[in-house]
Amino acid sequence: MENRKILYSAIQPTNNLTIGNYIGAIKNWLDLQEQYDCYFAIANMHAITVRQNPAELRQRTLALLALYIACGIDPEKCVLYLQSHVSAHAELCWVLNTFTYVGEMERMTQFKDKSLRHADNINMGLMDYPVLMAADILLYGAEYVPVGEDQRQHLEIARDIAQRFNNALSPTFTVPEGLYMKVGAKINDLQDPSKKMSKSAENPNGSVFLTDDKDTIIRKFKRAVTDSGSEIRYDPQNKPGISNLLAIYSAFGGKTVEEAERYFAGTGYGDFKLAVGEAVADRICPVQAEQARILADREYLDGVLKSGAERAARKAGKTLSKVYKKIGFYQI
Ligand code: TRP
Q1: Is 147 near ligand 1, meaning CB less than 6 Å away?
Q2: What's the total number of domains in the chain?
Q3: What pLDDT does 2 receive?
Q4: How far is C-alpha 41 from the geometric centre of its chain's CA atoms?
Q5: Is residue 198 part of a domain?
Q6: For the chain, which end, N or C, has fewer CB atoms within 10 Å of the first or last residue's CB respectively?
Q7: Residue 223 lies in domain
Q8: pLDDT tens digit sequence for 2-27
Q9: Is 71 found in the same domain as 35?
Q10: Mutate to test the pocket of ligand 1, among 52, 78, 136 (most ligand atoms within 8 A of CB)
Q11: What share of the chain is helix, strand, coil (3-state, %, to 5)?
């Protein structure tokens, strides 16, 4: 543990995760926890930059924690915690605000997008979101930050803020590097395989959610669009539907795409789609059962959060106190 490099990431407890998120993000974290000193947060402070239903936010927080653990993220191996449990996040965010320019926040793509989508609630938190994210990362001295491509700009600003502070005062923060994971990159929409599978697809049959039950999963795969011809061959150009299904099968069925092609040679599209649905359900349904079991054990979950918060606060507190000293806050 001692001389491992530090890695930090977080997920907001707001999204309905798809099987693309599972393959693109959560599954990678399983490998990362073996190699790095990992801090994984549930970013509920980021979540409230868009209006949330409080009861739902609370419930989704626990559901996401239980999901992480059910997927194999081990609270003994990494620090799993809730962002709002560690007050240093808000405190460092305040200091970093004074090293961040209004103009650069106004230019952030996600801020502009969300301002359009939530025109009635363009609040200060929404604009400050990247600074809070910088505080998250910098508090832990993280060297690596696995995120989706959509977070690249936020990570760049975190690096800028760290460097700006280091230059203005003295070297304090580790400048983090992004590990860009192609979240659901190879998994496309089942109804429109030219598009990435997303949580907010127009046609809900196009996305398979980690919360879908077995019947729903099978039904969605049975309805998946295929291509002309009858051959099960990986050819994203000419056979986007079949290729997507082969990629999904390979991710969930533990075979390479070539092995899957050989395995399904001569099979009809209908049977093939059913087999892909079953491979996904066989992997996802036990995780759901485990998630439900963990979710019912509130005492265990509270224990995980308590221990996570303590370990996170210890690390974060050291950084914050260094920052307070450098900035000239009189300490007693
Ligand atoms: N903004 C990230 C997202 O929506 C979540 C997040 C919050 C995060 N803080 C972080 C990711 C720190 C990496 C590091 O995906």
Answers
A1: yes
A2: 2
A3: 61
A4: 10
A5: no
A6: C
A7: 204-292
A8: 689 999 999 999 978 999 888 888 88
A9: yes
A10: 136
A11: 60, 10, 35
